[in-house]
Amino acid sequence: MTKLVVDDDVRLQAVVEANTDEMFRLVDRNRAYLREWLPWLDANRSAEDSRSFIRDSNTRASEGAGLVTAIFFRDQICGVAGFNWIDAANRACEIGYWISEDHQGRGIVTRSVRSLVGFAFDQKQLNRVTMPVAVGNTKSRGIPERLGFTSEGIRREAEWLYDHFVDHVMYAMLSADWVLPRDA
Ligand SMILES: CC(C)(COP(=O)(O)OP(=O)(O)OC[C@H]1O[C@@H](n2cnc3c(N)ncnc32)[C@H](O)[C@@H]1OP(=O)(O)O)[C@@H](O)C(=O)NCCC(=O)NCCS
Question: For the domain bounded by 3-129, which CATH number is listed?
Answer without folding.
Answer: 3.40.630.30
